[in-house]
Amino acid sequence: MESEQLFHRGYYRNSYNSITSASSDEELLDGAGVIMDFQTSEDDNLLDGDTAVGTHYTMTNGGSINSSTHLLDLLDEPIPGVGTYDDFHTIDWVREKCKDRERHRRINSKKKESAWEMTKSLYDAWSGWLVVTLTGLASGALAGLIDIAADWMTDLKEGICLSALWYNHEQCCWGSNETTFEERDKCPQWKTWAELIIGQAEGPGSYIMNYIMYIFWALSFAFLAVSLVKVFAPYACGSGIPEIKTILSGFIIRGYLGKWTLMIKTITLVLAVASGLSLGKEGPLVHVACCCGNIFSYLFPKYSTNEAKKREVLSAASAAGVSVAFGAPIGGVLFSLEEVSYYFPLKTLWRSFFAALVAAFVLRSINPFGNSRLVLFYVEYHTPWYLFELFPFILLGVFGGLWGAFFIRANIAWCRRRKSTKFGKYPVLEVIIVAAITAVIAFPNPYTRLNTSELIKELFTDCGPLESSSLCDYRNDMNASKIVDDIPDRPAGVGVYSAIWQLCLALIFKIIMTVFTFGIKVPSGLFIPSMAIGAIAGRIVGIAVEQLAYFHHDWFIFKEWCEVGADCITPGLYAMVGAAACLGGVTRMTVSLVVIVFELTGGLEYIVPLMAAVMTSKWVGDAFGREGIYEAHIRLNGYPFLDAKEEFTHTTLAADVMRPRRNDPPLAVLTQDNMTVDDIENMINETSYNGFPVIMSKESQRLVGFALRRDLTIAIESARKKQEGIVGSSRVCFAQHTPSLPAESPRPLKLRSILDMSPFTVTDHTPMEIVVDIFRKLGLRQCLVTHNGRLLGIITKKDILRHMAQTANQDPASIMFN
């Protein structure tokens, strides 16, 4: 059926007008940045385009072909495999959209024939909602499982619950009647490793034994994680978001979203988080959700046979991933729209919203943290913010931008060094070394020993009457006779100053270790470490402003709104703003990030501080480089990804960029009726191009169409097996009518059915600024360059990327995938 759809792929599109009459606007193709084949050298994968407007370029339709006639000369039966894609190749967005339109028309035309056809039509219409529902259910369930397992294994580094081995520390002490307010985390049921092994709960011996066991478990978890990744699913490492962006732009990476990757990523994500490495599970949860979406899409023919439609499901899945990662369904939809998706029609927006809703509902039903919230660090603030506080909020934004710029440069430099040195050949050793250093340094400091999510929770939490943290060790010089929600600002006690020093050390530790951790061969997210760094900085700034307001409340900046005994400053709010600023500085997200953090806090009142800090961090970060961390890793890995956010302002023409250039060999082309099967097979074997222009003759150079290498190979192999008389000397005919041949000639092979009759073309005088825009908007892989209808050359996406690198004074070879 797929091949049959391919035959109707839109070769009836005899003019631009036939495209503009498509069934819906989105089908006109807001294409994605389609990627080139990694393994080909020059004329890479080709994509037929549909539209061309403007004065400098034109849309051709196969030279002198009579476009009013039936353009297809179908073979006796469909050719299996034509229209499918190899690994590390780019999908043909236009062909996939045409296949879907043809499928839709065929179903609509048959649905009135019988009740069965009507049922099939309804099933087809609802399959999109069904697949995103299944994706949301699976994403929510897996996220709950990962949260519960990671919490239990994190606490396993410190001790074990004897009454119920599957309880973490907090759950173990829930049912105990022997806990005190000051030591609420201590109960007889929970035993540290020192108590179990040497029978001591206190003292130097106990500390050393707990230290050793902490390092042992951290190294064990890290070693198991990297070993599973290396042996079973190499694609399970890293964040996954750069590759998800690349896949959503049209690239195919077989196995990246497969069942083995899903299984290993889920298991190793728990191990990596529990090992105490400076990483988070939020980014990899997007990869896990996309794996679920990809697997479920194979249950529905509408998506399993159409790569463009499948990417709509993956966009919805990425929204579900962020929804369960942060408990932010709306933020997840905006994240998918702003950060990862390239092609995002309106119906995908609705389905993304629904997938995020279902995933959040499932996670809420599981209640992994026991607090009836979707995340561990949900907080609510009751104190309003004041205009003066915008100044420290903006300073936090500047810090976030500087941190983001530093992190991107340092991490990319380290990852590049890893690729270019022998160190990168020993991923297991690297993970063990990083885990060992992290564990040895982290244990003595209570803030780095904490699970990062718990650290963020503690930094976000406002100091209330029931808080026993050292961050809330203020001197009570007020005669408070009753417990109230809003405790007035007080002078900091010894515990607060001690905590600030520990937080400063934790900040330095987190900054250094995150640079070296992101990119190692275990699942590693960046959201939580970045938020932790910002939250530490924000809490420190918040305490400083709070003490300034307490001791100098008569200053004019405090005098109007901060009275003695009032609760003016909320340090936890500063931590939240700092977390958003640092995450924005690294990823360069804006709208989606503000909404995610707003959904975390449940307070509309703090949107303005968040917006101010996030925008400031983006501006400061952009001053050092416009790329976020994910775009930087895409460029580092050499994925030919044409970023829609980049601007092209140079005044070159298509003729300056096209190949062949001067001193290059001539362009490899096919003629419409002068070549034999052997000629074509020799050309395929001698070149590595992914397709060949078809011209009328070598003399005229008039363009007829374009034939893909894969389609030619499959069609010739199929013809040799199924059609009698096809031999090496058989004439291959791409023309509408077979030319007259001598009687003794072997049977000709008619391949007009695999010919793209409307390849996208531009003239040699088209400005490159327009060509780049066309590639982005239509998701093209290449276009042909003509002059008065005569073929001159070809421009591929790799040519554009090389040209953009040269104009930016970069080495083109350094950005292309090897």
Return the CATH architecture of the largest domain: Orthogonal Bundle
- At the fourth level of CATH, the homologous superfamily of the largest domain is Clc chloride channel
Strand order of the largest sheet: 3-5-6
Mean of pLDDT? 82
- What is the 3D form? elongated
Q: CATH first level of the largest domain: which class?
A: Mainly Alpha
Largest sheet: 3 strands, mixed
- CATH third-level topology of the largest domain: Clc chloride channel
Which regions are unreliable across 5 or more consecutive residues at pLDDT < 50? 1-76, 479-485
Distance between the termini: 36 Å
Structural class: mainly alpha
Give the number of domains.
Answer: 3
Motif (Selectivity filter part_1): 238-242
Subcellular location: Early endosome membrane; Late endosome membrane; Lysosome membrane; Cell membrane
Site (Mediates proton transfer from the protein to the inner aqueous phase): 339
Main location: membrane
Structural description of this entry:
This protein folds into 3 domains: 135-366, Clc chloride channel (Orthogonal Bundle); 387-473 and 484-637, Clc chloride channel (Orthogonal Bundle), CATH 1.10.3080.10; 654-814, CBS-domain (Roll), CATH 3.10.580. Helices cover 52% and strands 5% of the residues. The chain contains 30 helices and 11 strands. A 3-stranded mixed beta sheet has the order 3-5-6. A 3-stranded mixed beta sheet has the order 4-7-8. The protein has a 3-stranded mixed beta sheet with strand order 9-10-11. Strand 5 (691-695) and strand 6 (703-708) form a beta hairpin. It is a multi-pass membrane protein. Glycans are attached at residues 177, 451, 479. This is H(+)/Cl(-) exchange transporter 3. The chain crosses the membrane at residues 126-163, 209-232, 258-276, 282-301, 349-367, 391-416, 423-443, 500-520, 525-544, 606-624.
